[in-house]
Amino acid sequence: MLAVEDVDLFYGASHTLRKVSLTAKRGEVTCILGRNGVGKTSLLRAIFGLQPIAAGRIMWEGRDINGLAPHARARCGLALVPQGRDIFPRLTVLENLQIGLPLVPKARRSLEEDEIFSLFPVLQHMLGRSGGDLSGGQQQQLAIARALVTQPRLLILDEPTEGIQPSIIKDIERVIRHLARRGDMAILLVEQYFEFARDLADSYVVMERGEAVLAGRKADMEEAAVRRYLTV
Predict the structure, then answer these.
(1) Could you tell me how far CA 113 lies from the centroid of its own chain?
(2) Which CA distances in Å does 27 have to 8, 77, 221?
(3) Tens digit of pLDDT per residue, the chain (232 long)?
(4) Which residue of 68, 69, 103, 187 shows the fewest CB atoms closer than 10 Å?
(5) Is pTM beyond 0.90 here?
């Protein structure tokens, strides 16, 4: 389980995160909701070690990982699918996927029968194509698949539906639901679209101006209260 405890983060003089806390459990989807600019991506960057925190703790499986570099956190079982996807456009689909293999024990470094091709069958037919030639939705599937190659125990997704056509959003929803039901992975999902998050979430956190202003289990969610923090 991931536990973020009273985290503060600054960008220069800007106090971006203020005493933010959350947990993410195996077999569950934890959704972080909020408008643009409220600190959602900054929180994910802090969890992954891409931005140092000023106060608080980030605990993973009972261990304080504040001092670990991003690559060391990846070796601990964390994987990030960033906003904007960040695939390598000049590498082929296969080469993009292979980038994750060094994090996997040598005995399991194979893509031949990997589960990712059952989750994203379109990629198996595009292994030789450059990443930059894929549509936005296909690139998003590739970004998620690349993260899954590392066999993570915590999958962090930053707005995976952004700019994606509805049919692929449904595919991504199906994959997230499948991964959560498998029970060996915690999923942390940042999302702006309420319906997508609501349908997937086991628990949720709503952010406003760098603070967690609402949090709880899906069963206790008051839709009107959450939507108030999502409308512009």
Answers:
(1) 24
(2) 27, 15, 19
(3) 899 999 999 998 899 999 999 999 999 999 999 999 999 999 999 999 999 999 999 999 999 999 999 999 999 999 999 988 899 999 999 999 998 887 776 656 666 556 788 999 999 999 999 999 999 999 999 999 999 999 999 999 999 998 888 989 999 999 999 999 999 999 999 988 889 999 999 999 999 999 999 999 999 999 999 999 987 6
(4) 69
(5) yes
* 24 bridge partner residues: 2
Q: Distance between CA atoms of 74 and 147, rounded to whole angstroms?
A: 10
Domain 2-228, CATH: 3.40.50.300
Q: How many residues does the chain have?
A: 232
φ, ψ (nearest 5 deg) of residue 30? -105, 120
Name the residue type at position 51: Q
Tell which residue, 102, 105, 104, 124, has the closest CA to residue 113.
124
Strands of 29-33's sheet, edge to edge?
A: 78-81, 154-158, 186-191, 29-33, 203-208, 211-217
Which single residue is written with the structure tokens 């194979």? Answer: 110
Burial code of 113-122, b = ≥16 C-beta within 10 A, e = fewer? ebebbebbeb
Tokens of 83: 């906003």
